[in-house]
Design goal:
By secondary structure, the chain is α+β, with helices and mostly antiparallel strands. The protein is built from 8 helices and 16 strands. Helix 6 packs across helix 8. It starts with a strand and ends with a strand. The structure holds N-(5'-phosphopyridoxyl)-D-alanine (PDD).
């Protein structure tokens, strides 16, 4: 069965799907995106992802390519046409197609929309969570507006590749103050020695993860204490637990940082219980 993409108004097999060579996403990374998890046929936390999309678009003065209602329908349709039960749906909006010029094109240029979906194996991610993952740390060399979910991800790509080459799963960006900002495509958390969940406030230096928001709700329901503050690499290495969150990984325990084991080097119980309770709390929209 060929994979089907939505491209500017049409559902097309991937081999026929194309965007214009002067799409501003291609030339300037002038666009934004979202990734939602699909679990058992439900799109997870879609309202949160679309609210954040709205914010990203506003911050960059890009219009909605279609109405929010229409986009919800397109996401569901792409998931259904690709028969994805468990996986991811990806959407990207760029400022559209225009002759190359740094200045914004005239208002008559429509934003461009692409939506794709892919299946993933939940058993693989369950095994990953049982084993835990390793992270390395890298200097945070990104621009200041990482709160906007733009497709300009080169520092993230380079960091993630560095992690892969070091045999690790994720790279944590670290600011000049020695504090962890976030992962290349995940938010970073620790459980302190006194049992508090610690994660960086979403005001500055990180993307406000939708999974992060849901995990905070899960933690509240489990009666855990949460501290929204930045933490250093040293503190993370000495923590009781560490973990990462994102739509693609939900909650993944971190068992080593720069080659040093976190606690006993096994996934921690807090991370695993947050993961176990996640779907009870997350918003589920039938695709
Ligand atoms: N990344 N921080 C960064 C830099 C991210 O790229 C992401 C998500 C997150 C977590 O956000 P959320 O919980 O909303 O997925 C944090 C997506 C999954 C990606 O680029 O594939």
């Amino acid at each position: 069965m060929p994979r089907i993409a939505y491209v500017n108004g049409r559902y097309v097999p991937h081999r026929d799907a194309s965007v214009h060579i002067e799409d501003r996403g291609y030339q300037f990374a002038d666009g934004v995106y979202e990734v939602c998890e699909i679990s058992r046929g439900y799109i997870i936390d879609m309202p949160g992802h679309l609210d954040r999309l709205d914010r990203s678009l506003r911050e960059l003065s890009i219009g909605w390519p279609v109405s929010r209602k229409a986009l919800e329908m397109i996401l569901g349709e792409v998931v259904r046409r690709n028969r994805v039960r468990d996986g991811l749906v990806y959407l990207q909006v760029t400022r559209g197609v225009a002759r190359r010029d740094h200045v914004f094109p005239p208002a008559s240029v429509r934003p461009a929309l692409v939506v794709t979906a892919k299946s993933t194996d939940p058993a693989v991610s369950a095994r990953r969570a049982e084993a835990g993952v390793s992270v390395i740390t890298v200097p945070d060399n990104r621009w200041e507006r990482v709160d906007i979910k733009t497709v300009g991800l080169l520092p993230n790509v380079l960091a993630r590749q560095k992690a892969r080459e070091a045999g690790a799963y994720e790279a944590w960006f670290v600011g000049t103050d020695g504090k962890v900002t976030e992962g290349s495509s995940t938010n970073a958390w620790i459980v302190s020695q006194d049992g508090r969940l610690v994660t960086r406030p979403a005001e500055h230096g990180i993307l406000r993860g939708i999974t992060r928001g849901t995990v905070i709700k899960v933690a509240e329901q489990l009666g855990l204490k949460i501290e929204e503050r930045a933490f250093t690499v040293e503190e993370a290495k000495a923590a009781r637990e560490a973990f990462i969150t994102s739509a693609t990984s939900i909650v993944l325990p971190v068992v080593s940082i720069d080659g040093a084991a976190v606690a006993n080097g096994h996934p921690g119980s807090v991370a695993l219980s947050l993961r176990a309770a996640f779907f009870d709390v997350a918003e589920k929209c039938l695709a």
